[in-house]
Design brief:
single chain, alpha+beta, elongated
């Protein structure tokens, strides 16, 4: 039986990448290069300079035409979003590591509670739903809600938690919560 040769004999074993986890957007940079009719968009490892993905010329232009990539100033963000959706990059990012202050957590919990309470309300006064507002909850009820939310955010990140809850509460309620959080600057 013939002896198996290494797959990449020209690369020393010490230089082979041994990472098990996928890189995150914090580990990479988006490189954009354009000259005359040439175009290159690549996702490059910040430490090694290796490319995880690369799009050249017509392939790169098709990504714009297909709506996957956006023009500047949102180009880098759209490339990273696409890479996460395609599984090239892990979806966790610095957002998942963000630590919210207690007042921020209270406001986030309020947005969640108010949106869900309005949706679940069964009594209406005219066209407005009747429900217990956040400020009318007892302090212990608010603290319990905030603690539970804080644990989930620390574990999954705010966006991760929202995406996981989407299948339970539905797209419409999730979008209402996302809109409320974006308005207040938490997303």
């Amino acid at each position: 039986m013939p002896r198996k040769e290494p797959l990449y004999p020209h690369v020393p074993k010490s230089r082979m990448k041994k990472t098990k986890a996928k890189p995150t957007r914090d580990d990479v940079r988006v490189e954009v290069w354009e000259e005359r009719d040439r175009l290159h968009i690549g996702i490059q490892d910040k430490e090694t300079g290796d490319y995880y993905a690369s799009w050249w010329d017509d392939e790169a232009r098709q990504m714009f035409e297909g709506g996957f990539f956006k023009r500047r100033p949102n180009l880098e963000e759209s490339v990273l979003d696409y890479a996460e959706e395609m599984g090239i990059l892990a979806k966790e990012s610095s957002e998942a590591k963000r630590v919210y202050t207690p007042p921020e957590l209270a406001k986030i919990a309020e947005v969640f509670y108010e949106a869900q309470a309005r949706r679940k309300a069964t009594i209406y006064a005219g066209l407005s739903p009747m429900y217990t507002r956040w400020e009318n909850l007892t302090q212990s009820q608010r603290d319990e809600t905030i603690r539970g939310l804080q644990e989930r955010i620390e574990r999954e990140g705010l966006k991760g938690y929202l995406e996981r809850k989407r299948s339970v509460v539905g797209d419409e309620l999730t979008e209402e919560i996302v809109h409320g959080l974006e308005r207040r600057g938490y997303l």
